[in-house]
Model the fold of this input.
Amino acid sequence: MPLPIKAKTCWCSNSRLKDFNQEYAECLSCGTLVALKPLSDDQLFVRNDDSDFYGKKYWLDHQKEEFGYPDIYARSRNDLTERNLHWLKILLKYRFPLSSVLELGCAHGSFVALLELAGFSALGVEMSPWVVEFGQKTFGISVQAGVVESLNILPGSFDVIALMDVLEHLPDPIATMSHCLKLLKPDGLLLIQTPQFKERMDYDELVQSKNAFLSLLIPDEHLFLFTKHAVTELFQRLGVNHLCFEQAIFAHYDMFFVASRTHLEANTTEQIDAALMATPNGRFAQALLDIRERELGLTKRLLESEQDCATRLEQIEILTETILGSKRKKLGKYSFFHKLTSQ
Done:
């Protein structure tokens, strides 16, 4: 029987949870994985950059020491050539340059900078003043410090709000997403990357198979880990009925989707190319996207070649074993015949 846990409720207000492991429980209503001992609401704010959890040390020491992730200096370089280009490609599928974009939790700010290069009007938001200053100095971008609910932003200001690995950190996703929707234009959209908890996942089976999703079980940070069903229900409650799930760059444990209150219509490749090629900086963004596509193509061909080699090697081993087995069988018959005739 599921263990009732009264100390915590899901974002959907359901308190009927069942054990997943010592740190998480699964909501019996929507299927979300709920952290049982998250940081307190007060700990989520950054008032002192030197001591608060999401302050300076989080970006320089915590992620590197606890999880082996690169620090903010390495990420500000590496993210540009992989995840940022992936996100830009998907955004261009639904919105052209000149659209206004707000990125919550922009970290070092490289995605905001890439958006600006491509022709978007972009603004970042971060809780740590130190990280805000880092983004401003490193990429020359516009960044505001604080939680989005506290910022002086007029309703209907943005075409797009991006949350990359942010949704899972929100203590009250309904409240924050509701506020974000007020900041969007009526036909605006949300661009979201977040870990994907898959239905019927079993913790012991994840451990036995060394599943990559285990690295996302960070209960003091990842407060809610959604299934596709749960995240769809969350936005439907807010009147956002149009969700389109796209390929996540880390598809083995993430999901990536676009959400809107209005119908989502995809731009064609020709339209996207024309929009980027219309400006000098847009051409540079297009060149980066082209390089990324070539890189992915080469990687795919390399993997296919390695798989082909592995298959051929397996066939050679089977054929070799068959030939050797046949020879051994013939040698066995010859020895038996030789023994009979020599008696």
